[in-house]
TrEMBL record:
<feature type="domain" description="Flagellar basal body rod protein N-terminal">
    <location>
        <begin position="8"/>
        <end position="35"/>
    </location>
</feature>
<dbReference type="InterPro" id="IPR010930">
    <property type="entry name" value="Flg_bb/hook_C_dom"/>
</dbReference>
<dbReference type="Pfam" id="PF06429">
    <property type="entry name" value="Flg_bbr_C"/>
</dbReference>
<dbReference type="Pfam" id="PF00460">
    <property type="entry name" value="Flg_bb_rod"/>
</dbReference>
<keyword id="KW-0966">Cell projection</keyword>
<dbReference type="InterPro" id="IPR053927">
    <property type="entry name" value="FlgK_helical"/>
</dbReference>
<dbReference type="GO" id="GO:0044780">
    <property type="term" value="P:bacterial-type flagellum assembly"/>
</dbReference>
<dbReference type="InterPro" id="IPR002371">
    <property type="entry name" value="FlgK"/>
</dbReference>
<dbReference type="GO" id="GO:0009424">
    <property type="term" value="C:bacterial-type flagellum hook"/>
</dbReference>
<comment type="similarity">
    <text>Belongs to the flagella basal body rod proteins family.</text>
</comment>
<dbReference type="Pfam" id="PF22638">
    <property type="entry name" value="FlgK_D1"/>
</dbReference>
<dbReference type="GO" id="GO:0005576">
    <property type="term" value="C:extracellular region"/>
</dbReference>
<keyword id="KW-0282">Flagellum</keyword>
<feature type="domain" description="Flagellar hook-associated protein FlgK helical">
    <location>
        <begin position="93"/>
        <end position="329"/>
    </location>
</feature>
<dbReference type="GO" id="GO:0005198">
    <property type="term" value="F:structural molecule activity"/>
</dbReference>
<feature type="domain" description="Flagellar basal-body/hook protein C-terminal">
    <location>
        <begin position="558"/>
        <end position="597"/>
    </location>
</feature>
<keyword id="KW-0975">Bacterial flagellum</keyword>
């Protein structure tokens, strides 16, 4: 009997001691990231049959397990991936937003200063100091464009660097998970009934760290290992094997890197950003290929359309020496299909202020009946903008040395009656041909040239006449002779100033007037686009952070260490230990008494 009591007491003592060790482990790891609370399980031993019935034999420790909820853990991982996806973008978007909206760096003030210099020059078109101010403001505008472009390029380089660094971190975590898989599988093989709790905690913690970088799903295998998948089902970890991600230069854009997945034959498959739904890696790629690229393209489109319009208008006029105007800015038309690269190549070509073509290159002919004697005023030829940019017939008068469609260098307007007017073109393939002049209802006092077809085709040449043409009236329109000084004539300068509010920027490049905007309006639209994108990501980031906090709290309530609970268990198992010790003490006393009785 004493022996039986003794063994029962020992089993109780061992159980209480083990339980105290588990409680101590919980208390020690209360602040360990990823640690799940452990509990000891115990069961009564198989009873022994006695004549009077079954007598208990004590207690067995059946195991030490961790309190783990797969569902709650997956909620944390999903929220973690979503939170880091948005937070990695938000800091970058704030930089762009602050850059474009900053009045000291933004383009609106530079545009305003540029057009103010044109306004000042219009008061005295021959003033060299005023012309030099225009040149200076042009350079300031170019410098501001390139400064913003350089900042965006630095953000692009930074995003690519972060992508490369993140891929390396993903591979390191994947290797850590594979190593833990190996240890867990070995431990499970040696004792299939028990789990290596601490190793499993470390692996789950590594999975949580991995989901900060890339959204990853784990599938438990029969041997206790995890198979980890990312993207569209690419296996990152299989047992103790790792399929490491890589990076390579993007052939379509050498400034960018692509994320690759290894193939069995040694090649690599590119993982598009659209295949990655969460984590920092997807966030950096989404920022680079989304808002950042769109902003670069919008800024490039603005630079292309502005420089093209200014160059085109300057070439329609004459400089102080009477020569045809040249390009003010470097031609960037070749970047129309990839405008994100345009700003880096923006350059001011005009260095000599006298070369600014402020004067109109068309004049009324001396022959025939002149407007001064008739009350008829010719405002000028309306020239179409280059069709390759999708611009429609939107330029206002003045004047051109060569019409871009017909190649005309002038025209003679004749009236056989007040309602029968024709125009004969000079120069170009239509040289000498006569076209009908009909009212253009889209222009005040406007007329346009059409052919004799039915229905008539619009040639794209328009002008304004105030007054009534009479039978026999002739107006000749021809270029100012090369080298003829046109001091004081600021007609072309007025057209340059008019470009400030004219709807020219065509982001769609679809050849229609739909969606056209002025330069400053388009820039403001770009600023708003970035601001809206920033606010959207900010709201999403806040929501995901809240979800992460809630999911983490829910998991902690189940799996985390509660110090109050552990303190209560500490007292409980201490008392159990003391009671089992008392059982042993009594068993020892009984055993001694039996020995004495036998003596």
């Amino acid at each position: 009997m004493g022996s039986n009591i003794f063994s029962i007491g020992v089993s109780g003592l061992n159980a209480a001691q083990t339980a105290l060790s588990v409680v101590g482990q919980n208390i020690s790891n209360a602040n360990t990231p990823g640690y799940n609370r452990q509990v000891m399980s115990q069961a009564a031993r198989m009873p022994q049959q006695e004549g009077f019935g079954y007598l208990g034999q004590g207690v067995d420790i059946t195991g030490v397990s961790r309190i783990y909820d797969k569902y709650l853990d997956s909620q944390v991982l999903n929220a973690q991936a979503g939170s880091n996806f948005y937070s990695s973008q938000l800091s970058q978007l704030n930089q762009i937003n602050n850059l474009l909206a900053d009045p000291t760096v933004g383009l609106n003030n530079s545009f305003q200063s540029f057009y103010s210099s044109l306004q000042t020059l219009s008061q005295d078109p021959s003033s060299i100091p005023s012309r030099q101010t225009v040149v200076n403001m042009s350079q300031a505008l170019v410098s501001n464009f390139t400064a913003i472009g350089n900042n965006l390029s630095q953000m692009q380089a930074g995003a690519n660097s972060q992508i490369t660094s993140t891929v390396n971190s993903i591979n390191a975590l994947a290797q850590n998970i594979a190593d833990l898989n190996n240890q867990i599988a070995a431990a499970a093989a040696s004792n299939s009934q028990q789990q290596p709790n601490d190793l499993m905690d470390q692996r789950d913690q590594a999975m949580e760290q991995l989901n900060k970088l890339v959204s990853a799903k784990s599938v438990a295998q029969s041997d206790g290992t995890y198979s980890v998948f990312i993207g569209n089902g690419q296996a990152l970890v299989l047992g103790n094997q790792v399929n490491k991600l890589g990076t390579q230069t993007d052939p379509a854009n050498p400034l960018n890197v692509q994320v690759t997945y290894p193939n069995p034959n040694g090649t690599a498959t590119v993982i598009p950003s659209s295949a990655l739904s969460g984590g920092q890696l997807a966030g950096y790629m989404s920022f680079r290929d989304g808002t950042l690229l769109s902003t670069q393209q919008k800024l490039g489109t603005l630079a292309i359309d502005f420089t093209t319009a200014m160059n085109y208008q300057n070439q329609l006029g004459r400089d102080l020496s009477g020569n045809q105007g040249g390009q003010i800015f470097a031609d960037m038309s070749s970047y129309a299909t990839h405008p994100q690269d345009a700003v880096a190549n923006m350059q001011l070509l005009l260095a000599d202020p006298s070369k600014l073509a402020a004067s109109s290159s068309l004049r009324l002919g001396a022959g025939g009946i002149t407007p001064a004697g008739t009350g008829v005023t010719l405002s000028g030829v309306w020239a179409s903008m280059p069709g390759t940019y999708g611009w429609a017939n939107t330029s206002t008068p003045p004047s051109t040395t060569t019409h871009p469609v017909t190649g005309m260098t002038g025209m003679t307007i004749n009236a056989t009656s007040a309602t029968s007017i024709t125009a004969t073109l000079a120069g170009g393939p239509d040289n000498g041909q006569t076209f009908n002049v009909v009212p253009d209802p889209t222009i005040s006092n406007g007329y346009k040239l059409v052919d004799s077809a039915t229905p008539a085709n619009d040639l794209g040449i328009k002008f304004q006449l105030s007054g009534q043409m009479q039978a026999g009236m002739t107006i000749n329109v021809s270029p100012v002779p090369t080298g003829t000084a046109v001091i004081g004539n600021g007609n072309n300068l007025a057209e340059m100033m008019g470009l400030q509010t004219r709807k020219i920027v065509d982001e769609n490049k679809d050849g229609t007037n739909s969606g056209l905007q002025s330069f400053q309006t388009y820039y403001s639209t770009t600023v708003s686009y970035v601001g809206n994108a920033t606010n959207t990501v900010k709201l999403a980031s806040t929501a995901q952070t809240t979800l992460l906090q809630q999911a983490t709290t829910s998991r902690s309530n189940v799996s985390g260490v509660n110090m109050d609970q552990e303190a209560a268990d500490l007292i409980k198992y201490q008392q159990a230990y003391q009671a089992s010790g008392k059982v042993l003490q009594i068993a020892q006393t009984l055993f001694q008494q039996i020995l004495q009785m036998g003596g």
